Each structure stands twice: as C-alpha cells, then as structure tokens.
Amino acid sequence: MECSVKWVGTDGMSFLAETGSGHLVTMDGAPEGGGRDLAPRPMELMLAGAGGCTAYDVVLILKRGRHDIRGCEVRLNAERADTDPKVFTRIVFHYTVSGRGLKPEAVERAIHLSAEKYCSASIMLGKTAEIRHEWTIVEA
Fold first, then answer.
1. Do 29 and 49 reside in the same domain of the chain?
2. Are 19 and 84 contained in the same domain?
3. Statement to judge: residues 97 and 127 lie in one domain
4. Whole-number Å distance between alpha carbons of 113 and 125
5. Average pLDDT of 5-31?
6. What are 68's strand-pairing partners?
7. 91-119, pLDDT tens digit by residue?
C-alpha cells in the first residue's frame, strides 16, 4: 500500500494525498495553525478511516450471514490527549444498523468480529485509545 502527500499551498497548510489506487484526498489545518479550513484535518481522516473500515466489515459479515441488512451508519466520538503527541485516548463507535428482522446477537457478533479480528484501523487505534462499541438496530 502506498500514498503520497504533497503540500499544495505555500500560503497555508493545505496538502493533497494521492492513494496507491489513484484517489485524491485534500487535507487542511485549522486557521489558528496556519490553515484555511478548506478540508478535513489529518486526524479527522484517521477517525473516518476507522469508521469506514468497521462499517465495511459489519455490512460484509451480515450480508455473508444472509441477514437482511439495509443500512449501516457509524458515528465516532473521540477524545485526544491534551499534550503532544495528541493521540486518541478514547473513541466511542456507535453503529446504527437497519434491516428486516436483524437479530441483536448477529449484529453484536459482526461488530465484535470487526473490533477484534478484521478492522485493522480500529485495532491499531486501540493501542492508544480506550474503545467502546454501542449499537442500535432499526427495523426497515
């Protein structure tokens, strides 16, 4: 896996990342840090990556189990250390999974498998952060 990041605005703190698969992502800093607030912060993208990773796992696990899943949203709420390096210290993942006749134990199992075995991003973040998983099931 590869990625390149290039500073793209000598008048601010904007960066352009190009992933190994050829996709582009813009990042920017907060105004108080010299940024222009035009794009997500790098740490926000790390959090989004963990959310995407686990959502992918949960949907795939439930689909493979032939559960009638219709939607999956993961909201993440994170706290960071007060001093440098300002790593994540606590992250709550709240899943809202919708479908028809979804069994709570199936959803719980999918989330557990993602958290403990498959989601590299959240497992890596768990090395510095206390991670908690919550979920809600919505009948579609």
1. no
2. no
3. yes
4. 16
5. 93
6. 100
7. 999 999 999 999 999 999 999 999 999 99
- The Cα 17–Cα 27 span in angstroms is 8
Question: How many domains are there within the chain?
Answer: 2
Whether residues 7 and 76 share a domain: the answer is no
d(CA 14, CA 77): 25
| CATH number of the domain bearing residue 132 | 3.30.300.20
DSSP H/E element including 26: strand 24-27
Spatial separation of the C-alpha atoms in residues 120 and 75, rounded to whole Å:
18
- Domain range for 14 is 3-33
Q: Of residues 9 and 3, which shows the higher confidence score?
A: 3
Residues 6+ apart with CB under 8 A from 124: none
pLDDT, tens only, 70-90: 999 999 999 999 999 999 999
